[in-house]
Write a structure and sequence with these properties.
- It is a single chain.
- The chain is mostly beta strands.
- It has a ten-stranded antiparallel β-sheet. Strands 4-3-2-11-10-9-8-7-6-5 form a ten-stranded antiparallel β-sheet, with no helix packed on it.
- The protein is globular.
Length: about 260
């Protein structure tokens, strides 16, 4: 899910510290610049490909998108255009456009025995950089060729991924992903706050001084729940992201810069 939408983040609310209000936010230990440590992180992904009457349905963790595998751009999820091209019997090229801009390209390579699938994934960020990830999936259950329920067994992040946490309006926090030009602002009161995109919200609650739980919603449904924790020395931030329908969470470990 992380690589498909190329987005994260989160937010914080310390229920037990609401009485300190603005002072807590200004002194929050979460504030700072953070860099993902790929070696300590695990971002399992799952995707389903189903043959559907001459077309294929692609489910990347949301709504299934049904298109013809002919290399043309066809309507996809969230107003995007999706293209899948069979470059060879064992190779598919997957591309997505949004607002006329190419936002990702992935090369899928099927193993000779059809049991594993390699995915060389590249997302093109708004700042001009490229997010590079390599995945290896194993087939779960039946299916043949590219059709099947694919679950990752190896994920390799090849690019740096940065996160900034800032104070927001005194008693809130702002989570910024510089490469994607995305910002998530939340007040420390446990209420739903709108994010970028119609019908998307985030709320949060505190567990203790170093642990938070954030819930993200879209169209009234929970899209993920994030457990955010700081190490005792404040130098590492761990985000454990639970996505409905997924057996394994994403675990992202950031180090303070």
């Amino acid at each position: 899910m992380f690589k498909r939408s190329v987005k994260i983040l989160l937010l914080a609310c310390l229920a037990g510290c609401l009485t300190t209000g603005m002072a807590w936010a200004a002194d929050s230990p979460f504030i700072g610049a953070w860099k993902l440590n790929p070696a300590e992180s695990r971002m399992p992904d799952e995707m389903k490909v189903t043959s559907a009457g001459g077309k294929y349905a692609f489910d990347f963790g949301g709504v299934a998108e049904t298109i013809a595998v002919d290399g043309t751009f066809q309507p996809g999820y969230g107003g995007t255009l999706l293209s899948v091209k069979a470059a060879a019997p064992d190779t598919w090229i997957v591309e997505r456009k949004q607002n006329g801009r190419l936002v990702l390209r992935a090369t899928w390579k099927l193993s000779k025995d059809g049991t594993t699938l390699a995915d060389y994934f590249r997302a093109f960020q708004l700042d001009g950089s490229t997010l590079s990830m390599d995945y290896v999936y194993a087939r779960n259950g039946g299916g043949s060729g590219f059709s099947g329920d694919w679950r990752s067994i190896k994920e390799t992040m090849n690019s740096p991924f940065l996160l900034q946490v800032k104070a927001f309006q005194g008693d809130g926090l702002s989570f910024v992903t510089p490469s994607q030009h995305t910002v998530k602002n939340v007040k420390l009161d446990g209420k739903d706050y709108p994010r970028e995109g119609a019908g998307t919200y985030s709320s949060a609650r505190g567990v203790d001084a170093r642990n938070l739980v954030i819930t993200d919603k879209a169209a009234g449904k929970i899209t993920d729940t994030e457990e955010v924790g700081l190490s005792s020395n404040g130098k590492a931030l761990t985000m454990t992201v639970h996505i409905p329908g997924r057996a394994k969470p994403n675990v992202m470990v950031f180090e303070r810069e």
